[in-house]
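Provenance

Sequences were taken from public entries as deposited. Structures were produced by running a predictor on each sequence independently, with no templates supplied. The record for Oligopeptide/dipeptide ABC transporter ATPase from Natronolimnohabitans innermongolicus JCM 12255 is shown for reference.
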Amino acid sequence: MSTPDDPIGFGESDLAHGETLLEVEELTKHFPADSGLLAGVNLEPGQFPPVSFGVDQVEAVDGVSLEIKKGETLGLVGESGCGKSTLGRTILRLLDPTDGTIRFKGEDLAELSGEELRRKRSEIQMIFQDPQSSLDPRMKVGQIIEEPMRAHDMFDDEGREARAKELLEKVGLDPRHYNRHPHAFSGGQRQRINLARALSVDPDFVVCDEPVSALDVSIQAQVMNTMEELQAEFGLTYLFIAHDLSVIRHISDRVAVMYLGHVVEVAEKEELFENPQHPYTKALLESIPVPDPRESGARGVLEGEVPSPQDPPSGCRFRTRCPRVIAPEEYELTDEEWGHTRAFMRAVKRRTFEPMTAADLRREFFDGDLPRGGAGEIVDEAIGYVATDRRTDDERGGDGDEDGVTDDDWERATELLLESFAERSICAREQPAYELEAQHGSDPHFAACHLHR
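Predicted structure for Oligopeptide/dipeptide ABC transporter ATPase:
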């Protein structure tokens, strides 16, 4: 047991600053899409027996590889639902990984269990997003901070109390508030209590899961400044999860961008903000509001919805929304022709236009001129399915709506366009991973985009 006189930061790390502390390789976390007694039982009326068995999986995190160095802050950013928090919790083994390795100081956390894992938790801690729900309202602040020390048999009662009060002072709170309950504190003060609790067992690595997203802007800056001061003093390493790019830019040394369970770009902070190489990263940066009333119009608007992680796209997962998806090589399309074809294909898939005549469709999407060669023939066939003047209801094989276009027509046109264009692109056939030369800084720049092939 540690003695009461040990100062904060009593643990000595065997790693030097800048050496690899955490290495994640092909980390995967899938969840079953259904639960309950009949989970995995699917009705199949067209076969005998009319049932099949198998549980669909939600691919929350899929094949993520990251490296975090001692003493640095790696920012993890992405849209809500992209898997950021799941990745953080899986790294800490709050969730069991489906596959992959989590090497912390050379030891694979994915292989640990029971007492070995419990002992390791003193070196890896977490700060949760909600500063209110993550604190037990029935416990006093002192008890909350002391609880991890008690779980890991650190200090005696007097030593734990002394350390808790010292930590309260370190995070900017009055040690005399040791006996207060969490409801007596503001949101920013509660998050400082969370920070003190995480530091109580002297960890080397802390996962910060959107720790300032619930706070006012002025309080955000105070909490982040406190975190940076503590990092410098105790040599902490942070994985800082956020969706606010201004927060990421303030506190991070390197940044990883996540989309639909995949990491799509990793670079040093200045390199990523000044020289983004993935279309998704560029869209995120363009979406940052500009404090200028003369600026008008939408910024960084992406087409479509995020696909379901239960059935993610093949190849590059961003390809269904990417404004720069690559044309199939078998068609000799100009950039303009491919842009028109891509826009028409996505409009048909999402049914974003009312049915119109074939001539109107050509003018609306192709300025009157279809692409040349085989691509043009495919587009013309697709137009035939959704144009109001191409075929009769009898030729379509069913009753249409008042425009003569049925759901089957939309589906046939969509299937034809996707199979002929989207599925033949390299973006759909191969998963991208490219290491680029950085223009700012010395670390490699990783981008998962076939534009760099």
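The longest helix spans residues 217-234.
DSSP finds 15 helices and 14 strands in the chain.
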